[in-house]
Amino acid sequence: MATGKTFYIETFGCQMNAHDSEKVIGTLEQQGYAQVQDEAEADLLVYNTCSIRDKAEQKVFHRLNDYKKFYKSGKRFAVIGCVAQQEGERIFEKAPYVSLVAGSASYRKLPEMIARLEAGESRITGLDDRQTDETFETEFTSRQNPYRGYITIIEGCDKFCAYCVVPYTRGKERSRGSDSVLEEAKRIADLGYTEIQLLGQNVNSYKDSSGKLSFAELLAAVGQVPGIRRVRFTTSHPRDFTKDIVEAIDAYDTLCDHVHLPVQSGSSRVLRAMAREYTRDWYLERIAWMKSARRKISITTDIIVGFPGETPAEFEETVELLNEVQYDGVFGFKYSPRPNTPALVMIDSISEAEKSLRLQVLLDRQREIQRVNYDKHLGETLEVMVEGMNPTRGQVTGRSSQNKPVNFTTASPIAPAPGSYARVKVTKTFPNSLAGEAV
Ligand code: SAH
Ligand code: SF4
Ligand code: F3S
Question: Where is the Radical SAM core domain (predicted)?
Answer without folding.
Answer: 143-375
